[in-house]
């Protein structure tokens, strides 16, 4: 994705003419590895087709479709020309933004720029900017326009009080895309301001995406704080966007015309008074945009010019978006729509010119606005939808196939925990009665928690003690009390206060504190259930099988392994983080068993096979007995494995593989060595970064890495450099929101963009190494130049901080890295295959997807092919290959990975004895035959069936 950053800006450049400027820009793109040499021809060819001058002193030179192959990586480079460069027709450019993009990604950039383009005097400000930061601010900092249109006006809405009216205002803002869902709660905290004439004002800057103003009037007369409540303004405030509106509103009130607002019967009347966007009652026509790269600069310019030929207003909007219509005569506004091929444009014209303008503009759009367009495919008629199948609870004796998430066999009564919506009244009977109800509910929940504390171990008991503490927190109870006094029901008051407190907690920069919001919500729900008489199914006395829709990692972490015999979830996959935690706790788990499991009655007997991913409902006695016998046998095997955990892992025919541990911090190291680890195969350093409230400096990191190396006492340590970004942001490291974070700026892509962070980390690692075996690898490498850039940094630092036993490699978790393993193997010292991500990217299934991730099985033959390719390429160059994804600990995968000739398996510490034992049971020649056959299969199921037969 194209984003603007200071590192991309070169200030104070000089060019005699446009040609020289293009030359400079192209050289910059080449030098930074974004494009190949010939890209300059593309820039020139594009300018020959039409100038890339945008207005306001900005040009956006880019290549042509023919030069796309020369782009290695999407990006932009900006050059400031304070003396100006004539871009043709006397248009002077002070800032040129050279774009390297293979597709129409530059539309995104245009969208970013258009806010700035609307500013007056931008050209002059760009010319004068004295630093890259100032220039960036100019491009990004222009105020957004205040949204105020018909959808933000709600007249005569049913509301019982001020809070309900405010809630309705927040809903309007949310529906218009101005605010996030939490805005309603934020608004509850804001101090209302009386404007006079019964009009009130509320505003907040939190949870705001785009500035907007909603105006709401109540159906029946209301009062608030002993004054009439005739209408309420709710402002989602961002910058100074609302300034003009506020001035206008003051004028209206000073002139005593407030009733024109609260007595209005149409949104149009309100908007006319406030100067908002009045919905045009004008003729319109719709046309689908067919331009291959959407409404980008050239066609938009053509459209604006055509529209300017008509003497009257013409507006345009994209039907599929919530954005308001813009003037068709303004190039910058047209670009701000970001209209893409296949979207429907609506042209709206003033009645006097509509008959001429609409058909002319429509025809011009259909003909491509000066570009060749391919007709759009006709939309297939929408098939009548088959009725959704009615779900029923699985029958006794039946089995459900899910995904094997944590090995082991478990049986016990189901404890089905499904969060159902609980309805509750907003208004209470009387404050005294509601107060009494709440007190009783709080006492009952307190007593429940007492019982939980008594039967939990210390660590888990602590959690429930915290919950008890929260129940009596005066900050909560005081707020609840004042709501009760205003007539709210106990349930409404309690939930509003808990929700607001949880949101405040979630907004904290500190991840650990933010996670406590889950505790607040937990007790919030317990009390609500008690107030509404909703029975929460009691936790069974004997060890049970927990059944949930999905289990978050923190849910699993607080489970008591002594009470929870197994876990079954309806959604989720084997590499979801909850599954990883379940494995670490040693609780057998099956995930992705399907929605029907949630319909089981609590108490139904379940048998769970965490190795085969199977759940049997009310199993027949003989099946249960067989399974329990298998469990006991497994138990014995594990005990035997434990006894031999410190011995090497060697197949029966003498082939040795290394079994290493995956860890996330330095504290668990003793345990890891005690479990038999021969080294650490994956230190996930992002977990170290996440444990700090700000980026740890070199010394802090060095101390942490030193602790790990000390604990390993000469065993090798494989460290992965910081793997954040995408779905794993660091709270103190703001990263722009992305539509597809898994395909976005994450792993090494991100650290290469912030070289200081990477340099600090590498420096700390090299300093900590002394003479001990250190292996450094980079996550998410998908391109050879990424590896080279990262490696170059290590080489540079290595001169300064020599390390005797250092190897540098990459993680293979993007299919392109496996496909280019031949080229990469010549340069790296080793590969470590991250099968979790490799599976997600190969099968195009989000590893945390609620329903699909169940199919993201690392034993899929497509993934195995990539592993095979990687190993062959590495061995041809004498390099070693490890597997550090969850697949390495899957009992059905171990022999197969041996057969693919993987040299090292890195697994969670708990799995080490078992994985070593599995290696000892195998022999290499059989494993090789198994692997060859597996590569020929057509599905993961077929591979698993094959392994069972072997
Ligand atoms: C992987 O992707 O397999 C891996 C080991 O990395 P992570 O699970 O931390 O993304
Ligand atoms: Mg990964």
Automatic annotation (TrEMBL):
Reaction catalyzed: L-histidyl-[protein] + phosphoenolpyruvate = N(pros)-phospho-L-histidyl-[protein] + pyruvate
GO biological process, one term: phosphoenolpyruvate-dependent sugar phosphotransferase system
Gene expressing this chain: ptsP
E.C. numbers: 2.7.3.9
Domain HPr, chain residue ranges per copy: 282-372
Coiled coil: none
Class of enzymatic activity (EC top level): transferase
Sequence similarity: Belongs to the PEP-utilizing enzyme family.
PROSITE patterns in the cross-refs: PEP_ENZYMES_2 (PS00742), PEP_ENZYMES_PHOS_SITE (PS00370), PTS_EIIA_TYPE_2 (PS51094), PTS_EIIA_TYPE_2_HIS (PS00372), PTS_HPR_DOM (PS51350)
GO cellular component, one term: cytoplasm
Organism: Pseudomonas mosselii
UniProt GO molecular function: kinase activity; metal ion binding; phosphoenolpyruvate-protein phosphotransferase activity
Cofactor(s) recorded in Swiss-Prot or TrEMBL: Mg(2+)
Entry keyword set: Cytoplasm, Kinase, Magnesium, Metal-binding, Phosphoprotein, Phosphotransferase system, Pyruvate, Sugar transport, Transferase, Transport
Every PTS EIIA type-2 domain range: 2-142
Presence of the UniProt keyword Cytoplasm in the record: yes
Domain of life: Bacteria
Name of this protein: phosphoenolpyruvate--protein phosphotransferase
Pfam families: PEP-utilisers_N (PF05524), PEP-utilizers (PF00391), PEP-utilizers_C (PF02896), PTS-HPr (PF00381), PTS_EIIA_2 (PF00359)
Location in the cell: Cytoplasm
